[in-house]
Amino acid sequence: MNKDYKKIAETTLKILDKKPWLDITLKEIQTKSKVEKFNLLIKNKKDLLIKLNNYFDYKVSSKISNIENSNYKDMIFEVIMMRFDVLQENRKGIKSIFDSFKSKPKLLFFLLPELLDSILIMVKSINLPIKGVLGQLKIKGIFIIYVSSFFVWLNDETIALDKTMTALDKYLDQANNILKFMNK
């Protein structure tokens, strides 16, 4: 990840610890990040959301090499939980951004392709076969599992994210059963 984008993302997340997403301005982020080319890199808050998501992808990607090579269900579980661990580091800011979607739901729809790209990055990192129709179904299924688990994560106040892990495991088991049924 470009060092300027990284600095912008980290500055934004620090500001989000103190202020809600709807109250922060690009000017404030520009001033505090001290990134000279800020106006060339970030045009609006949509650009900023994309860069924040890319930052989370970057953070997860730097940890993925630690995944133990096992069955795909376990590896998917591990990589999604890595993403939740990264989000957990910035929980207050993520919740603030998500809360803003309630008043501006179009932003959420704008971000969906970026989240799908994040799923692709995670899936490719564990070498899950994703070719053909079945592969596309897997990607969409993992996306649904991630989003469903994200809603659990939003309300999971346990230190070890026990509720999120339990829900994710349950959703992956259900998806695995569906795949077994489809392969009969």
Question: What is the structure about, briefly put?
Answer:
With about 180 residues, the protein is an all-alpha fold. It has 9 helices and no strands. The model has no long low-confidence stretch (mean pLDDT about 90).
Describe this structure in words.
This protein is about 75% helix and about 0% strand. By secondary structure, it is an all-alpha fold. It has one domain (about 50-180): Tetracycline Repressor, domain 2 (Orthogonal Bundle). The radius of gyration is 17 Å and the shape is globular. The chain starts with a helix and ends with a helix. The model has no long low-confidence stretch (mean pLDDT about 90).
SSE order and pairing:
Blueprint: H1 3-16, H2 26-33, H3 38-41, H4 45-61, H5 72-88, H6 91-103, H7 105-125, H8 132-155, H9 162-182
Beta-strand proportion: under 5%
Mean residue pLDDT: 92
Molecular shape: globular
Kindly state the number of beta strands: 0
What are the main properties of this structure?
9 helices; Tetracycline Repressor, domain 2
